[in-house]
Amino acid sequence: MEIDSAKVRAFYQLALDKSFSKASRSLAITQPGLSQKISRLEDELETTLVIRGQKEITLTDSGLELIRYYKTKVELDKIFFQSINPDTSTLMSEIRIASFSSVTVSVIIPLLGTLIKEIGVFRFNVFSREVSQLEKCLFDGEVDFIISTKEINRERVQNICIGEEEDVHIAPKLKKNIQSLPFLDHDAQDSTTFNFLKIQGKDLNFRRCYLNDINGIIKGVETGIGQAIASRHIVQKNPRVRIISHHKKVKSKVYLSFFEKPFYPESQKKCIELFKNYFSN
Description:
Layout lengths: L4 H13 L2 H8 L3 H15 L4 E3 L4 E3 L1 H24 L9 E6 L1 H19 L3 E6 L2 H9 L5 E4 L8 E16 L10 E3 L6 H9 L7 E3 L3 H9 L5 E4 H4 L5 E4 L5 E10 L6 H13 L3
Helix pairs in contact: 1-2, 1-3, 2-3, 5-10
């Protein structure tokens, strides 16, 4: 059986745009034309690939499997064309990573620099999300890898524990009385402060304020507008904050998660290797 490449490309664009209207504009075809392509592809494969919602589509397990197949095929095509024409720079490989914010700048970006030195130029797309959103990024096909403090217990997903992260309580360096300062979190769903104080046996009736990401939170502590719970590795050398001691250490395992597949481009294999070794060094 041969899969129609044009239909699969259309399906891949639909998966990226998450709606028929957006994907049809990206592909410069009519929405009914795109819908017909997807329906015919589903008929040919004898399976449902997408669940159509009012605003967005959701990929089924078969749809996710087709996305992984398509991306593997694209990577193999790139390797073949580069083997017969090494100067084909437009066909360079790509790595897409989503992580929680405290490791994006401190871990991922330095590792990308190392990766470029070892294997040469490649495209990369790195962004931060809340831990609760990372699994969806992987299953929606937005990224190749996620770095999270939670394992994904799903079939064909590989979880590699790459280290541990310790949370610490930080306050402004020169402010001795911090009783009146609010705790700074990302948003109302961010449970970092709650979990830390609960483990320490502290009063859980505390005032909260919100800043969008970890860099904003640390800047807020530096300027004296709040206190926070943050990862030790990104604050321990910061001269504008102080770490407040507590009786219990609060550590979380950090996982690199990705789908198992029969073929990994050299850039992705090296990426996995670097992440596995980073925290052990």
